[in-house]
Amino acid sequence: MQAAAFDEHGGPEVITLRKLPVPEIADDEVLIKVLSAGVGVWDVYERQGVLVPEGSDLPIVPGSDGAGTVVAAGSQVTNVGVGDLVYVSATARPKGGFYAEYAAVQAQYAAKVPDGVPAEHAGAMPTDALTALAGLDALSLSAGAWLLIFGASGGQGHLAVQLAKRQGLNVIAVASGSDGVALVTRLGADVSLDGHGDMTEVLARIRDAAPAGVDAILAMAAGRTLDRLTEALVDGGVVAYAHGVRPEPGERPGVVVRAYDGESSPRQLQRLNELIEVGPFVVHVAETFPLGKVREAHQRLETSYLGKLLLTVA
């Protein structure tokens, strides 16, 4: 099979196309003919040697996220079957990732692509969607509460907006630039604001929308802007951020800070699918690259864009 892989850690230049054997599956695994693969910062960490999948040997085929068709299933697999269109989030994948024509993963990390999500775009969704769901779980807000999502037009943020609305929350989305504001408005945010704008005006609009204060902030980014936005929180309000956000939000009087990680498990995949299938769900893909342009995709990660980046394999 054709695959993009690396034999040493470093910059985008270490990833090359080569022919590798199609992986064989164990009894608890599925073999997937890959349609598309998401491109995320975790792929960069893997390429740099910061995060290396447990049990992996060189050459390493990166790609934690992907979607495709199951072409073989082990004898113990019951949740998906041959012919199913599935998406996968798998950090543990010693037999290689989704930057390849075929990928073998444990079936517990796979779920059928829900209605309403284009098959190709499903490959860009899994890790960010599961992480956004974990962030909402960490906040544990009741329907009707006011949630501010900071970084709302990014990969995790634009999915969090949609999942939060499905949970009955009032969403204030702070996005990047006018195009980011347009995106989160289209996705259903109750209030859409430009985080690059005048912060005094931004805070005034937040207070107009939620005079009693915002109950929580889901932070996909941090820094001075987030520090200002915490002024809109109710006393005892919560800031939740995913591990990896830098600088980490600090504790301050009257604010509770919680970190969270995404979880890829059968239960979370089922919950995610149930929320997605409530209505139209958008995985916004900023740019698509063929597998042969994988280096360019990793270079694009270092720039500003809305939503997700995607590799097409099939």
UniProtKB/TrEMBL annotation:
One of its GO terms (molecular function) is oxidoreductase activity. Gene3D superfamilies: Medium-chain alcohol dehydrogenases, catalytic domain (3.90.180.10), NAD(P)-binding Rossmann-like Domain (3.40.50.720). CDD domains: MDR_like_2 (cd05289). It comes from the Bacteria. InterPro entries: ADH-like_C, ADH-like_N, ER, GroES-like_sf, NAD(P)-bd_dom_sf, Zinc-ADH_QOR/CCCR. Residues 10-311 form the Enoyl reductase (ER) domain. The lineage of its organism: Bacteria, Bacillati, Actinomycetota, Actinomycetes, Micromonosporales. Keywords: NADP. This is NADP-dependent oxidoreductase.
